[in-house]
Structures are given as C-alpha cells and as structure tokens.
Amino acid sequence: MKFLRVGVVGAGQLGRMLALAGYPLGVHCSFLDTGADAPGAQVAPILVGALEDAALLAELASQSDVLTFDWENISGKALAPLQKLTAIRPPPAALEVSQDRLQEKSLFSRLQIPIAAHAPVDSKEQLMTAGRKLGIPGILKTRRMGYDGKGQFLIAHAGELDAAWDSIGGSGLIYERFQAFSREISIVGARSVTGEIVYYPLSSNSHAGGILRHGIAPFANAGLERSARRYLKRVMSALDYVGVLAIEFFVVEGRLIANEMAPRVHNSGHWTIEGCVTSQFENHLRAICGMPLGSTRALGHTAMINFLGQMPSRERLLSIDGLAFHDYGKDPRPGRKLGHCTILKSRAKERDLALRDALKLIKWT
Ligand code: AMP
Q1: What is the CA radius of gyration of the chain?
Q2: What is the rounded distance in angstroms from the CA atom of residue 304 to the CA atom of residue 268?
Q3: What is the distance in A from the centroid of ligand 1 to the CA of 293?
Q4: What sign has the CA pseudo-torsion 38, 39, 45, 50?
Q5: Are the CB atoms for 228 and 213 separated by under 8 Å?
Q6: From CA 147, how far away is CA 4, in angstroms rounded?
Q7: With contact defined as beta carbons under 8 Å apart, do 248 and 204 qualify?
Q8: What pTM value is reported for the model?
C-alpha cells in the first residue's frame, strides 16, 4: 500500500513525535525548518531554510498529501498560495486566530467561553488606563509570538507599571487581569474531516516562570471536564477545525477561564503517548489524513515531567518502574525543552509516589 505523505512546517519535538507516530500508520512526514539538526530532522527528511520561504513552502506542499504544523506562527500570507497545491490542516484561519492573543480572546468571548478581563495596549498611557480600569495585579503580554512565558511581565503593584513598560513596552500588547487560580488544566481533542470529535481526559499542569514543568492526567473532575469539552467543541466547530487542538484554562473559584489555545499537538498532551489507547500525535495524523479517529481512553494514571535546560540521568530515571523516557536530541540551553518522561501506573497513589521520586532526579535550569 502506498504511504501517505504529510508535510510539517517546523521540525521541533512536536514534529518529531508526529513523524514517529506516523510510521506504524504508513504515514511519512517530511519537514521544513531552519536547521538540518532539528529534532524532527533526526527521524525524517527535511528541507532546510526559512519557515516562510515561499519556494521551500511550495516544494514541501507539492510533495505532500496534506500540510500541517508544529509551529503555528506562520503568516496567513505565506500560507495562502499553498492552498492551491495541497490540503492545509488545521485550517489557516485557526492558526491566524491563535497567533494573536487579542483575536483569540475575541473568539472565546464570541463563543461565550469565559476569559480574563483584558485590554489592548499600544502605548504607555493605555497601560496606565488598563491598570486603573482592570485593576492590579495584572500581566502585560505581547499579543504575538509570546510562548512559554516569554514576552510577559507580571505587574504586582502600581509601582511596577513603569518597569513593565520599560521591559516589553511598545505596540501590540495586551494587559490581562491576574487570575488567582487554584490550578491550571488543559484539554486536548481531535476533530476529523467528517466533524467527528474525540476528547482526551483533562490534564492538570504545573507551570513555573510561565513554562510547563509537569502535569498529571487524567485529572478527574466531571464538571470541569464537561465545560472544557463544551468549549473545545465550540472552538473546533466555529473554525471547521481538522486535527488536534488544545485549550489551556485557569480554574478560578471552581470555574474555567480560558487562557489560550494551540492549533496543534500540545506539551500537556505528551502523556497520551503511553497513557492512552491512541496518542495525540497519532490522532492528529489520523484527523488530517482523513482517517477515523482512535480511542482516547486512558490506560491508567500518568505524570509527565519536562526536561528543561539540562538532561537528567537516563539510567537513574529508567530505574523507576513504568517510566518512559523521551530525548528530543537538542543541545542544552537554559529554559529549553530538551525532553520529557511519562510515568504510567495503575493507581493514582503509585503514580504520585513515582512522580515524587522522579522529580528528585530532575533539575530545571
Ligand atoms: P501563557 O503564555 O499565556 O500561557 O502564560 C504562561 C503562564 O503564565 C500560564 O500558564 C500561567 O501560569 C501564567 N499566566 C498567564 N496569564 C495569566 C493570568 N492572566 N493570570 C495568572 N497567571 C497567568
């Protein structure tokens, strides 16, 4: 049987895990990214060049049955000509919304998904007004290209407004009221070309410095799960979405407040590789290739821990029963996501004990 060809813009760890999930299905990925040593390029072919290079994008599109992304910041202008060459999934409109925090919040709000009070900020005066009207504490964020806590400034009291402006001030910002959340959770789901939707169990995520450190799943809370599914479905249906989509939420006084969405496989869904019947990576490929979606049933209780800045000892971690180790093949750099591990146990209590043991072996730098 002829294999299906998927072109992936961006060859980071997400692309790499997509490619690895593709092989058993007869789906072959190839990439476009800036470096021949990118994580994805270590497991599948790559075109090397700028991610928005028109000729290289056209080459990738014309050699692929479908085009997808592990990096969502590619411009609508760069994508438009490719639509004549091949199918683009998820739809470019979904990428465009997720590239701008303000547009994303407008979509959530139009779909009656609760969000934090916020205001666009393009000048220092607007920041002062936003602080006065929405209240402090709050977070000043860049509307575009901010991720993993980059391009953010937490304003704890009025005296820090100036420092925030000096640090990231300019046009194209957003000020959000600080959410005193009890936890952060996310939902990951997939929608097929025929509109079928599958949802993974919720994951409860611990961040520090704006970056995901570790998470546990399934996070069992029937009420929050119902709301998260309803909101994910609204976004997917509104965008006529195909592929995996993730939404991150704050839990505030028992209610969900949407923070942001990612039109792709997501770090908080890495646990699904070992923890579910079908991983988020496989379901993304199934969805964009027009295949039926796979079961999202959890196989037990999992914890996922990111390796940031430096790799831990593989040997010591592998001595923990039920632990799977993932090395993305990247050079260490402070704060960089280099790999992760997932612990799968049949009981939540055993998972919690193993998580505690694993955390002792991991240092984030
Ligand atoms: P983001 O880049 O928007 O996902 O933010 C990264 C992390 O910063 C989140 O996961 C939260 O831990 C924190 N954060 C972002 N926005 C807010 C907010 N409005 N209130 C409280 N914490 C926030």
Answers
A1: 20
A2: 8
A3: 31
A4: negative
A5: no
A6: 31
A7: no
A8: 0.97
Contact 316, 322 (CB under 8 A): no
Task: Please name the residue that has the structure tokens 């699904």.
Answer: 272
Burial of 292 (0-12, 13-18, 19+ CB in 10 A): exposed
Q: Whose CA is nearest to atom 7 of ligand 1?
A: 210
Answer yes or no: is the C-beta of 199 below 6 A from any ligand 1 atom. Answer: no
Question: Which pLDDT tens digits describe the chain residue by residue (365 residues)?
Answer: 689 999 999 999 999 999 999 999 999 999 999 999 999 999 999 999 999 999 999 999 999 999 999 998 899 899 999 999 999 999 999 999 999 999 999 999 999 999 999 999 999 999 999 999 999 999 999 999 877 777 899 999 999 999 999 999 888 999 999 999 999 999 999 999 999 999 999 999 999 988 999 999 999 999 999 999 999 999 999 999 999 999 999 999 999 999 999 999 999 999 999 999 999 999 999 999 999 999 999 999 999 999 999 999 999 999 999 999 999 999 999 999 999 999 999 999 999 999 999 999 999 99
Ligand 1 centroid–CA 323 distance in Å is 29
Q: How many CA atoms lie within 13 A of 187 on its CB side?
A: 27
Round to whole Å and give the CA distance between 265 and 91: 14
Tokens 């505690």 correspond to 356
Tell me the pairing of strands 87-88 and 66-69: parallel
3-class DSSP assignment, residue 220: coil
Question: What is the spatial distance between Cα 53 and Cα 79, in angstroms, rounded to a whole number?
Answer: 10
Amino acid occupying residue 284: H
Beta bridge partners of 47: 32
Distance CA 107, CA 28 (A): 34
Whether ligand 1 lies within 6 angstroms of the CB of 259 is answered as: yes
**Beta pairing, strands 27-33 & 46-48:** parallel
Angle between helices 124-134 and 161-168 (to 10 degrees): 140
- Provide the residue type at 287 as one letter: A
